[in-house]
């Protein structure tokens, strides 16, 4: 059979070139972004009354911002404050990559409205270490090889700190239960649990 020979599907003469050509067309159509509809006379956010002012503390720094009232804390941190250590994984509260502390409690920032942090304290992975040394949990993650690609790691560490702080690191089962909302696609779970166990043991000694 030659390159151009016909593969007659259901009585329709179709050549290999036809099939490849059609497939490529579909692929290109899939890749090319949809042309955005031309927005005419779209009111600004201010005009729609959808903005509000938020005054919060992020990693000890006071911040006042005019925000879209529908914005998530995750987008506020990454896109407005420039703190990109907090990762966007699923953006649906399913993976824990975006975990931060809000008034000391671990929360998924993708499901937390930025408007809700007004007058409150946010801590991200960037605020955990002090000027001279890493937080003990960060050191333990390194020592226990508790990461591979590192994408989930900021969220894992923020949850791990909360796990120890709130007394949930009493044994491996409790640790796993508390950390169950933090997914690691690299499967570094053994190291993560070991890191938390180590920090918890040291905090009991100290
Ligand atoms: S990005 Fe927030 S839980 Fe996945
Ligand atoms: S280290 Fe890769 S997803 Fe957890």
Description:
- This protein has 206 residues and is an alpha+beta fold.
- The protein folds into three domains: 3-32; 45-127, Ubiquitin-like (UB roll), CATH 3.10.20.30; 130-206, DNA polymerase, domain 1 (Orthogonal Bundle).
- It contains seven helices and seven strands.
- The chain has helices spanning 16-31, 45-48, 73-80, 136-143, 153-165, 172-178, 189-205; strands at 6-9, 12-15, 51-58, 61-68, 99-102, 105-108, 121-123.
- Strand 5 and strand 6 (105-108) form a beta hairpin.
- Helix 4 (136-143) packs across helix 7 (189-205).
- The longest helix is centred in the C-terminal third of the chain and has 17 residues, at 189-205.
- It is globular and about 55 Å long.
- The termini are far apart.
- The relative contact order is 0.11.
- Residues 1-39 have low confidence and may be disordered.
- Bound molecules: FE2/S2 (inorganic) cluster (FES) (2 copies).
- One FE2/S2 (inorganic) cluster is lined by residues 147-153, 184-186, 188.
- One FE2/S2 (inorganic) cluster binds at residues 88-91, 93-98, 108, 110.
CATH topology of the largest domain: Ubiquitin-like (UB roll)
Number of DSSP E strands: 7
Question: What's the SSE pattern?
Answer: EEHHEEHEEEHHHH
Rounded mean pLDDT is: 85
Question: What small molecules are bound in this structure?
Answer: FE2/S2 (inorganic) cluster
Strand order of the largest sheet: 4-3-7-5-6
CATH architecture verdict of the largest domain = Roll
Biggest β-sheet strands, sense, barrel: 5 strands, mixed
Would you identify the regions where 5 or more consecutive residues have pLDDT less than 50?
1-39
Helix proportion of residues, in percent? 25-40%
**First-residue to last-residue Cα separation:** 79 Å
Output the number of helix runs: 7
Structural class: alpha+beta
Specify the overall morphology: globular
Rg:
25 Å
Query: How many separate domains make up the residues?
Result: 3
CATH class of the largest domain: Alpha Beta
CATH H-tier superfamily of the largest domain = Beta-grasp domain
% residues in beta strands: 15-25%
């Amino acid at each position: 059979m030659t390159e151009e020979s016909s593969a007659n599907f259901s009585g329709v003469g179709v050549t290999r070139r036809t099939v490849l050509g059609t497939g490529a067309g579909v692929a290109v159509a899939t890749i090319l972004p949809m042309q955005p509809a031309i927005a005419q006379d779209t009111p600004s956010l201010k005009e729609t009354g959808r903005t509000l002012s938020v005054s919060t503390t992020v990693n000890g720094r006071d911040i006042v911002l005019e925000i879209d009232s529908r914005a998530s804390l995750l987008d506020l941190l990454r896109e407005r404050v420039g703190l990109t250590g907090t990762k966007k994984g699923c953006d649906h509260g399913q993976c824990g990559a975006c975990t931060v502390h809000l008034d000391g409690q671990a929360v998924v920032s993708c499901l937390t409205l930025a408007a809700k942090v007004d007058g409150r304290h946010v801590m991200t992975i960037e605020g955990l270490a002090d000027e001279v040394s890493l937080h003990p949990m960060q050191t333990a993650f390194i020592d226990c090889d508790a990461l591979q690609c590192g994408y989930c790691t900021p969220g894992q560490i923020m949850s791990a700190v909360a796990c120890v702080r709130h007394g949930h690191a009493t044994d491996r089962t409790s640790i796993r239960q508390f950390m169950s909302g933090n997914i690691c696609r690299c499967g570094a779970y053994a190291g993560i649990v070991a890191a938390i166990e180590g920090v918890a043991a040291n905090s009991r000694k100290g």
